[in-house]
């Protein structure tokens, strides 16, 4: 028989499935900011934040929401080579595949974009942009000067990448949107709503304020860490449910199990 | 199989370590208490009463907390000044959600979402604490605490939607009611979802499906066709085909 905790566990597999997007206080604010910035005559917009704060899912969300009104494309993990990147861009701009054994001529591409000005406005969402090299970033900037293509650049924040950010973004007029870790209310809502979306009512109800507070403490409000912790919590619950049901209560997740999961993930140690 | 034993051991160690400082404090408190008691007894019963108001109220405090922590359905606690604050409120929402709700066109103004976990607990520690602090803890009042039921939780979600206008909540209700076969409610909630999030595809699909179930097949077809015109949605096309073939 399938344990109820198995489905709960699967809710917290880390993924960026757009159907699982949840409106949270902070994510709604960031979404609105981003939508607003896209409408402004800016060339580039920087989306900034620690790993696991929801940048990718936000970009996916905005793409999905605006795709009927605008030409908007999402570029997920960076292409391995510059060549491949321009290949992808070529396809987006022209709707055609690049003929075999040919390469995109960059200056021709820039001219092409200049000619599009006033006719089309193309928005490209570049995720994980910390992986693009400085040269490519410079070319991306040149393309954006055409004002026919607007880039939303998502970067995650670590010390190294702070440097890239400074070099590339501070010298120019950019709009910067920063995503932060969730506060307790948002994290509570996140967990609750994620479970409710999968109709896991009782499980959502078994996470009370005290338990949620502890989870926030362990994860610092980071969504990815929260997914990891909850996955582990429900994994342990599932084990007990199957093998030692006396150790588990359906109406409450014991603090003990939350701490065991935190131990397993190294948030705390003996 | 999941390797639980080492984890359990590790947790026990962790707990023991965490508990250590408390044990020291507890031992100290106990010792101090014993010392005080010894003092009182050597001074005789009369003196104990004239001075002892503090100590009596202390024992009451602990016993109250003890009662409140028991997971009983019915517990007794001291009566506080504001009785209402103790009640686990379940009034204000009647059985029929649909009839009670404001119509779509007098939508409430979107407020800043008030973030709350709508959970009814079986314990009332906060209430007990409040009561324990009151001056006159002798009158008693009965407190009924209900376990949360599924239908109650649906109402909580509905109430929250009215406040936050979050399409995730209304869509959840639409889905849930559709599954339960309550198509009128499903239709209502799908419509609510669409009112706050007009591009929400699932709300359209659910709305159409609920319409079919309520024998408004033509209306469902009309709505879906219009939606397909606007969006060219594949999902909607598939559903439309199914409806036309009578497979919904
Ligand atoms: N508003 C939200 N609704 C639903 N899920 C969310 C939301 N915000 C974050 N998440 C979840 O949190 C996890 C991390 O989010 P995401 O992958 O978007 O982070 P990121 O900022 O792109 O991280 P990285 O910098 O490592 O790429 C994902 O599983 C995602 O589904
Ligand atoms: Mg990402």
Describe this entry's structure for a reader.
- The complex is a heterodimer of chains A (270) and B (248).
- With 270 residues, chain A is of the alpha/beta class.
- Chain A is 54% helix and 11% strand.
- Chain A has 2 domains: 4-17 and 182-265; 25-179, 3-Layer(aba) Sandwich (Rossmann fold), CATH 3.40.50.300.
- Chain A has helices spanning 4-11, 25-39, 55-66, 82-94, 106-116, 134-145, 159-170, 184-197, 201-205, 209-219, 223-243, 255-265, and strands at residues 44-49, 71-75, 122-126, 149-156, 175-179.
- The two termini of chain A are 35 Å apart.
- Helix content of chain B is 64%, strand content 4%.
- Chain B is built from 11 helices and 2 strands.
- Chain B has helices at 5-43, 45-51, 53-69, 97-100, 125-133, 150-164, 167-180, 183-196, 201-213, 217-231, 234-244, and strands at 74-78, 140-144.
- The chains are: A alpha/beta (270), B mainly alpha (248).
- The complex binds adenosine-5'-triphosphate and magnesium ion.
What is the name of the CATH architecture of the largest domain in chain B? Alpha Horseshoe
The overall strand count of chain A is 5
Q: How many strand segments of chain B?
A: 2
- The fold-level CATH name of the largest domain in chain A is Rossmann fold
Please state the oligomeric state of the protein chains shown: heterodimer
> What is the total domain count of chain B?
2
CATH homologous superfamily descriptor of the largest domain in chain A: P-loop containing nucleotide triphosphate hydrolases
Report how far apart the termini of chain A are.
Answer: 35 Å
User: How much helical structure, as a percent, in the residues of chain A?
Assistant: 40-55%
């Amino acid at each position: 028989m399938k344990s109820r905790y198995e489905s709960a566990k699967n809710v917290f597999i880390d993924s960026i499935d757009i159907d699982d997007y949840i409106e949270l206080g902070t994510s709604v604010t960031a979404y609105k900011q981003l939508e607003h910035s896209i409408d402004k005559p800016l060339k580039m917009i920087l989306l900034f934040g620690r790993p696991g704060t929801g940048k990718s899912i936000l970009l996916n969300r905005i793409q999905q929401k605006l795709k009927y009104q605008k030409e908007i494309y999402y570029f997920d993990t960076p292409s391995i080579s510059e060549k491949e990147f321009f290949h992808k861009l070529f396809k987006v701009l022209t709707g055609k595949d690049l003929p075999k054994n040919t390469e995109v001529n960059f200056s021709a591409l820039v001219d092409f974009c200049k000619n599009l000005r006033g006719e089309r406005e193309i928005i490209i969402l570049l995720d994980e942009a910390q992986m693009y090299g400085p040269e490519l970033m410079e070319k991306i900037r040149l393309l954006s000067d055409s004002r026919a293509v607007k880039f939303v650049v998502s970067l995650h924040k670590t010390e190294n990448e702070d440097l890239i950010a400074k070099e590339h973004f501070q010298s120019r007029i950019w709009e910067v949107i920063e995503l932060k870790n969730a506060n307790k209310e948002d994290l509570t809502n996140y967990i609750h709503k994620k479970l409710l979306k999968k109709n896991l009512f009782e499980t959502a109800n078994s996470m009370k304020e005290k338990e949620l507070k502890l989870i926030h403490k362990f994860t610092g409000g980071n969504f990815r860490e929260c997914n990891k912790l909850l996955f582990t919590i429900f994994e342990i619950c599932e084990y007990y449910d199957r093998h030692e049901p006396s150790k588990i209560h359906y109406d409450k997740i014991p603090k003990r199990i939350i701490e065991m999961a935190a131990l397993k993930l190294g948030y705390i140690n003996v | 199989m999941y390797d639980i034993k080492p984890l359990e051991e590790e947790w026990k160690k962790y707990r023991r370590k965490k508990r250590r400082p408390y044990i020291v404090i507890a031992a100290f408190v106990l010792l101090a208490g014993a010392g005080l008691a010894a003092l009182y007894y050597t001074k005789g019963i009369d003196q104990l009463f004239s001075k002892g108001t503090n100590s009596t109220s202390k024992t009451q405090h602990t016993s109250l907390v003890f009662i409140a922590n028991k997971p009983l359905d019915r517990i007794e606690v001291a009566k506080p000044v504001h009785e209402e604050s103790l009640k686990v409120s379940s009034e204000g929402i009647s059985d029929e959600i649909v009839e009670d709700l404001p119509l779509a066109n007098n939508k409430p103004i979107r407020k800043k979402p008030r973030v709350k976990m709508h959970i009814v607990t079986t314990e009332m520690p906060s209430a007990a604490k409040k009561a324990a602090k009151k001056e006159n803890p002798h009158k008693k009042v009965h407190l009924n605490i209900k376990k949360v039921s599924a239908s109650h939780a649906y109402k909580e979600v509905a109430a929250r939607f009215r406040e936050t206008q979050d399409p995730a909540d209304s869509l959840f209700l639409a889905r849930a009611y559709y599954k339960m076969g309550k198509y009128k409610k499903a239709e209502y909630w799908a419509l609510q979802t669409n009112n706050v999030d007009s591009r929400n595809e699932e709300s359209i699909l659910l709305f159409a499906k609920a319409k079919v179930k309520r024998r408004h097949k033509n209306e469902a077809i009309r709505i879906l066709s219009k939606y397909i015109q606007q969006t060219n949605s594949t999902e909607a096309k598939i559903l439309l085909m199914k409806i036309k073939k009578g497979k919904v």
